[in-house]
Amino acid sequence: MDTMEKLRILTDAAKYDVACTSSGVDRAGVKGQLGSAAACGICHSFASDGRCISLLKVLMSNACAYDCAYCLNRRSNDTPRTTFRPRELADLTISFYRRNYIEGLFLSSAVVGTPDYTCELMLQTLYILRREYRFGGYIHVKAIPGADEALIRELGLLADRMSVNIELPSNDSLKRLAPQKTKESILAPMTRIRDGIRENAHDLVKYRSAPQFVPGGQSTQMIIGATPESDRRILQLTEGLYKKYSLKRVFYSAYIPLVEDRNLPALNTAPPLLREHRLYQADWLLRFYGFTAGEILDDAHPDFNPVLDPKCNWAVNHPEEFPVEVNRAPYEKLLRVPGIGVLSAKRIVRARRETKLDFDGLKRIGVVLKRASYFITCQGKSASRIQTDNPAVLMGILRDRGLPQGGFQPEMPEQLSLFTPTKEDGVKCLTGQL
Ligand code: SF4
């Protein structure tokens, strides 16, 4: 098989991997070396149809020894198999970089023989790139669960970001659908990477020239909708991962049924895109808005409201917290008002040192008043005559968003895309300002 055919197969096989949006690494070009890495997000990949992208997202191999039921690359699936040689992939990456097709590499792999052997292939590729080509561009590499600690450490010294896919939200689901993987084999490299990052931070303070270990941090990816766990369970797991493993990001991937299996949703089941979208919104609330998983969803409400985003849903269900007086409320309380994002909360705190804010001022600051007005007062005045404990709040929000006021309709579009149903939703998708 020639290199282009391998590339076609192995970029196509990598397209369901979503665990990368941002390098988080800022490295200027150095004389005598090739490339640099920008801290701003790099989130595209090299598609098999040749579209211009920023990262070459590719598998080392799709010849997997494992048989995870949900995966197209699983051993029992009848699909063309191939594996890059390390030099072949390193040469390809460099030639794409020199042609300005890509800014970096996102390398994952199926398990070729054993996790250790797979890691060795990836390690050789990264070694050629970093040491022979002196490539300074961004590299994200997936750690293979079950690989030796020493190999994970070596990979971490060459990569900018690493990730270990958590795959499924519970141990039971893992046993049923990915029997060759165990919770322990997934968490062990995650622990190793976390500890390596911490030790490295310590070393860098002590010896400024210490080599960097995974400077862009680690992330993970979870498949949503292939197994029966509730949104609450997934969010609790996410919260635990952020706390325990200091992850940069948890990525969610709506399950797309591509294989027939009695333990999986039927082939014609639509991917749960709205659920994936709600998880990303709740994820922002965990990381930037001071919410806990238990506040967003509880025993009585284990799944997201399909009509309202999680912050709005929380606010509607907690009328006792409102209204919030924007001229006095602490930053943490402002953050909980629907329509006030992190940026506008900071601007409010800054602006009110100089002046008393009114509704026009809030609008100029960037507050989405059509949503916030139900939950705030400005100098004691409310812009909405509806009280927050009135069900009319919910109806008003739905009306403003152009959604049916009788509740969720099954025929409603599932995914909130960048362009529909409202421009405001598009902005929220991009900025996480809820
Ligand atoms: S180990 Fe990875 S590539 Fe192999 S079958 Fe499982 S999910 Fe697919």
Automatic annotation (TrEMBL):
Q: What's the protein here called? A: DNA modification/repair radical SAM protein
Name its species: Anaeromassilibacillus senegalensis
Against Pfam families, the record matches this protein to: Radical_SAM
> Its domain of life?
Bacteria
> Which InterPro entries did the record assign?
Aldolase_TIM (IPR013785), DNA_rSAM_put (IPR023874), Endo/Exo/Phosphatase_dom_1 (IPR051675), rSAM (IPR007197), rSAM_sf (IPR058240), RuvA_2-like (IPR010994)
Alphabetically list the UniProt keywords: Iron, Iron-sulfur, Metal-binding, S-adenosyl-L-methionine
Q: Which Gene3D superfamilies match?
A: Aldolase class I, Photosystem II 12 kDa extrinsic protein
Please state every residue range assigned to the domain named Radical SAM core: 59-195
